[in-house]
Amino acid sequence: MKKQTIIAVVASLLLLSCNTDDSYINIPEDRPYGFVIPENFPDVLQDIERNYPTENGVALGRKLFYDGRLSRDNTISCAFCHEQQYAFTHHGHQLSHGIDNLIGTRNAPAVQNMIFQDEYFYDGASNSIEMLSIVPIHNPVEMDSNLPEITAKLKKDDAYLAMFESAFDDGEISSSNMLKALAQFMTVMISANAKYDKHLRGEPQGTFSEKELLGKSLFEANCASCHATSIFTDNTFRNNGLPPNPNLNDLGREMVTGFPEDKYKFKVPSLRNVALTAPYMHDGRFGSLASVLNFYSDGVQHTDNLDPLLIQSNGELGIPLTDDEKEAIIEFLHTLTDEEFINNPEFYHQT
Q: Per-residue pLDDT for 10 more than 70?
């Protein structure tokens, strides 16, 4: 799908009101959800027309996103590992935590600007915004559930019965409709109002300092080949020379494709809101942006399938940066923080 212009923003979301026993539920007539496809963003890579967001569909997806009943023991919701105030990441946790206090093998990625991506997770285990929720639901150390069990739970809830009926033509609480509702919610989770965006649009709030301008220039010269476009990822899988963690033995993309040439390659993450999403890397080994840049300047190793962009013309590895240059880049990265996105009430947990 090509870039679209602004779709008129709809004033309100679903209004759900009920008495204490849920015997009366008032849900308004459904309408298309208004949201913005930013002009400076790359093409939409998911077919959102086949499951276009509606007000009731998004409200249902939001409710599901925050509902622990999507896990085996009703304790782990999507939001457990994807907290809004941290750009929907699991702040402070190197590796995702899940059911029975089990710990996963990767850091939870941000949930934002999802329709501008064509593959998800660090290894690309899913290429569909409608199907990606199956991965954590089925994962035995994340949610450890399955779709029939979840829909059986939801069918016992009068609020869900009314919300599914209002959001979909067939009105059914089904696996398909549940995944579609979650996809609709993620479709509208667009972060595009950071200082950086206001700078591009020439707005007063987007005036960059000299240090931010220097950081932007340095970033474009040294980082933008992989962290490309206004979503700050080129959607590829690369080996950035991170020394493998022997306790995890994570082969990255090779675990999905089976191809040796994909060993140690991981999805290039978006840097939107990156100042909020520590810790960093697929295994969360770095706790600060300074540590990340120190790695790129001094810590890159020549592991299998190292990306050629990290091999200098003289054979040295990494990206040569001075301390002052690193500070300037970090200053620029802070301009990617979108306060409107992380405080948007449309993404809050609403009962």
A: no
State the helix-helix crossing angle for 175-187 and 55-65, rounded to 10 degrees: 100
Q: What is the 3-state composition of the chain as percent helix, strand, coil, each rounded to the nearest 5?
A: 40, 5, 55
Contacts of 52 (CB under 8 A, 6+ apart): 32, 33, 184
* Of 122, 70, 119, the residue nearest 98 (C-alpha): 70
**Spatial separation of the C-alpha atoms in residues 144 and 160, rounded to whole Å:** 22
* 343 Cβ neighbours under 8 A, 6+ residues apart: 85
Q: Identify whether the C-beta of residue 173 lies closer than 8 Å to the C-beta of residue 181.
A: no
- Residue type for position 263: K
Strand-pairing partners, residue 306, are: 239
> pLDDT digit string (tens) for 172-222?
999 999 999 999 999 999 999 999 999 999 999 999 999 999 999 999 999
pTM tops 0.85:
yes
Q: What is the pLDDT of residue 349?
A: 86
- CA 113 – CA 120 distance, rounded (Å): 12
Confidence of residue 351 (pLDDT cuts 50, 70, 90): low
Token pair of 29 as six digits: 């007539």
Are 99 and 76 in contact, with CB atoms under 8 Å apart? yes
Q: Is the pLDDT of residue 19 over 90?
A: no
Q: Is the peptide bond before 42 cis (omega within 30 degrees of 0)?
A: no
Count helices and strands in the chain by DSSP H and E runs:
12, 4
- Between strands 266-267 and 237-238, the pairing is antiparallel
pLDDT, tens digit, 9 for 90 and up, residues 81-137 = 999 999 999 988 999 999 999 999 999 999 999 999 999 999 999 999 999 999 999
Which of 224, 258, 303, 3 minimizes the C-alpha distance to 124? 258
Write the burial class of residue 24 (CB in 10 Å: 0-12 exposed, 13-18 middle, 19+ buried): exposed
Position 27 scores a pLDDT of: 78
Q: What is the dihedral of CA 224, 229, 233, 235, to 10 degrees?
A: -120
Question: Quick count: other Cβ atoms within 10 Å of Cβ 189?
Answer: 25
d(CA 97, CA 77): 11
Residue 220: enclosing H or E segment and its boundaries? helix 210-222
